[in-house]
Amino acid sequence: MHGWINDWKKGGNVRHRARQARQPIPWRGGVQAQQVCHWGHGRRWFEVGRVIDQDNNQQTRSRGEEGDQADSEHKTAMHFFKSIHDDDEHAFESEANGTIQNVNDKWEAEAWLNRCGWPRHLEGIDPNQLRALLQPIGDDEPVLQRMWEVFEQVLDDAYDATVRECYPGTAELFEIARKEVHITTAKPFQGLMEPDAWERYKSRWKQLLCIWKRYQSWNAGDVSSEDGESSHSDSSDTSSTDGDDSSSSPSAIHDDIGRRPPYKMTIRQEEAWKAFNHGITQVVTGTDIRGRYTHERLHRSCLDTVVQFLDHPFKSGNHYDSIIISALAVMGLDEGGGWVPVTNYTPVYSAVIKVARYLVLYQSILERLVLQSKINSSRVDLIDPL
């Protein structure tokens, strides 16, 4: 027992005793309590809060000390919450900056990633370095700037030629719209597009070109050592772009970046890309003294290179050997972290596929014009041999 006895007795001068200090009491005042219910064990009171302003007789510290303690408690609380925020931010950045990991889960998002195979293709590569490939063309990339100028002109010419030369009923329109080799489509390829849609479609191919060119700044040595075979793109990059890699790569990409995505060019793709890249470099650096790389030559070299990229045989069964499909995997990275949702990425496929059809049609039109010119020349020679 606490042995406490109430010193207030009945009678006497109550006002006088109220002004005097009372003896300590064995309970706390100013406590807020609550009941669960009004019957049984629920009738017991339990503490839910305290009143800050207590009676002066029960205060053990002065107001100044309470203010100092409040400031100290406030600083402690702020430090505590800041440490939690810093830990969460550090964990988030660590996860975002970590290398890409393969996924193996049954959830819908992971099922989409498993089906497209992006994590498998880009596994172990820093996603921040991959996102740097998607950055807009910088002022320190003159070769890439000139490449896009030529490529954009090729795309516009391909669109104009398709609309002008391929009228409704043209055989090429049915062939290019074919989805399977043994099935002839009933509807021809629709060439007309809205101007704003065409600009959006071209922007997707601009990203592809940026990725292809910036791939050269990556150290591809790990790819050949892992696969046990050499990649044709390695020899092309080292032999033709020794002087322009540093000027055509964004500042976010460094020489010690590590291995790049393991795509593989064919011999023809390597030769076509090497010729196009070398011609653009000669023009930009002013070393084309003889003027061999005219606008028409660069124009056709660009078209042939892209068509060669589209004509990629899948002998090993790995679709990501194609430099186009490899770049499409990089375009699947979201700017804010993670992967682009499937609903947001399908327009990318639509843009790439449709523009590819324009390019193939354009090349067939040019080849047909060249063949007709040769036939007409041979006829003239037969009629007038002199």
Please characterize this protein's 3D structure.
The protein is an all-alpha fold and 386 residues long. The chain has one domain. It has helices at 14-18, 63-97, 108-116, 118-121, 127-132, 142-165, 171-176, 195-214, 221-227, 232-240, 267-285, 295-310, 323-330, 342-383; strands spanning 31-34, 46-50. 24% of the residues are buried. Residues 1-21, 223-260 are annotated as: Disordered. Residues 236-252 have a biased composition (Low complexity).
Number of domains: 1
Shape: elongated
Radius of gyration: 37 Å
User: Helix/strand/pairing class, anyone?
Assistant: mainly alpha
SSE pattern, N- to C-terminal: HEEHHHHHHHHHHHHH
Major sheet characteristics: 2 strands, antiparallel
The chain-level mean pLDDT equals 77
Strand content: under 5%
Please state the oligomeric state of the protein chains shown: single chain
Number of helices: 14
Distance between the termini: 136 Å
- List how many beta strands DSSP finds: 2
State the helicity in percent bands: 40-55%
Low-pLDDT segments: 219-231, 233-248
Strand order of the largest sheet: 1-2
Region (Disordered): 1-21, 223-260
Biased composition (Low complexity): 236-252
